[in-house]
């Protein structure tokens, strides 16, 4: 487990091989100085999946840290978007080159989801079906949209959510690093509020745990590390058919409750 804290964020990252797979092709990374959390779910024969996911984490982390240092504290949102685009594209080229030049790694690739926190914003970049959720005021919301064959069928109205959950084609991703020279990266920006909880996870978690159970675990009044462990434990208890990875990021600060209109008028009359 990785556990890091700053004045503004707490990071916990955990990955587990699961109950069926022989090796772990997931990788997780946290850089509290950069304000970055990364998760990758590798694919490929032998140990190639774990090679691809590890390469993605290392490349994005190291290059983003260097570029953030060069840009300085006044970096703009557009510069952050460009930074994520360049780092993920660089990781793609790096993985693809190794896949094409090393026979035992031919065909390897990896999903990736990156959360970059700056002040009161978070930028999310992803390819594949690794996800990011946000728990705010007790409500869980999926912020990323899967790049998968099943999601395309749902979007086209050809499958319902229930049919998709029962489909045998759940692991077919339509975007990944290391597969094609040119990639399409989804990069979105969201406002961050005090006490938000962001959950980055591989499909080894979400295939085993529904959103209601995930929300209940995320809301538990325990430590961030304990919540991450409980998520992995439940996924294993439900079968653990794949590697299971989760990165939790809790934002600091106090929530300010809105003042009710009636209270406002009473306060004004008292002056």
UniProtKB/TrEMBL annotation:
InterPro entries: PP2C, PPM-type-like_dom_sf, PPM-type_phosphatase-like_dom
Pfam family, one: PP2C_2
GO molecular function: protein serine/threonine phosphatase activity
Alphabetized SMART domains for the sequence: PP2C_SIG (SM00331), PP2Cc (SM00332)
Positions of the PPM-type phosphatase domain: 8-251
NCBIfam families per the UniProt record, alphabetical: Stp1_PP2C_phos
PANTHER family: PROTEIN PHOSPHATASE 1L (PTHR13832:SF827), PROTEIN PHOSPHATASE 2C (PTHR13832)
UniProt-recorded name of the protein: Stp1/IreP family PP2C-type Ser/Thr phosphatase
């Amino acid at each position: 487990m990785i556990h890091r804290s700053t004045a503004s964020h707490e990071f916990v990252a955990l990955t587990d091989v699961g109950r069926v797979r022989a090796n772990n092709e997931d990788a997780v990374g946290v850089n509290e100085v950069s304000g970055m959390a990364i998760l990758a779910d590798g694919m490929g024969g032998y140990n190639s999946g774990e090679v691809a996911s590890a390469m993605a984490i290392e490349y994005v982390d190291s290059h983003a840290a260097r570029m953030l240092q060069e840009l300085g504290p006044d970096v703009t949102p557009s510069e952050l978007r460009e930074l994520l685009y360049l780092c993920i594209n660089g990781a793609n080229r790096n993985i693809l080159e190794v896949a094409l030049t090393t026979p035992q790694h031919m065909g390897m690739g990896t999903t990736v989801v990156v959360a970059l926190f700056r002040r009161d914003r978070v930028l999310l970049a992803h390819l594949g079906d690794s996800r990011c959720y946000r728990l705010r005021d007790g409500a869980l919301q999926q912020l990323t949209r899967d790049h998968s064959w099943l999601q395309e069928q749902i979007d086209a109205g050809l499958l319902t959510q229930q049919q998709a959950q029962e489909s045998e084609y759940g692991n077919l991703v339509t975007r990944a690093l290391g597969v094609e020279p040119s990639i399409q990266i989804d990069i979105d920006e969201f406002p961050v509020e005090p006490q938000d909880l962001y959950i980055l996870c591989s499909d080894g978690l979400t295939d085993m745990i529904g959103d209601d159970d995930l929300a209940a675990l995320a809301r538990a009044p325990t430590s961030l590390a304990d919540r991450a462990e409980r998520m992995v434990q439940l996924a294993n208890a439900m079968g653990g058919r794949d590697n299971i990875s989760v990165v939790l990021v809790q934002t600091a600060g106090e929530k300010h409750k809105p003042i009710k209109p009636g209270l406002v008028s009473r306060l004004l009359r008292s002056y």
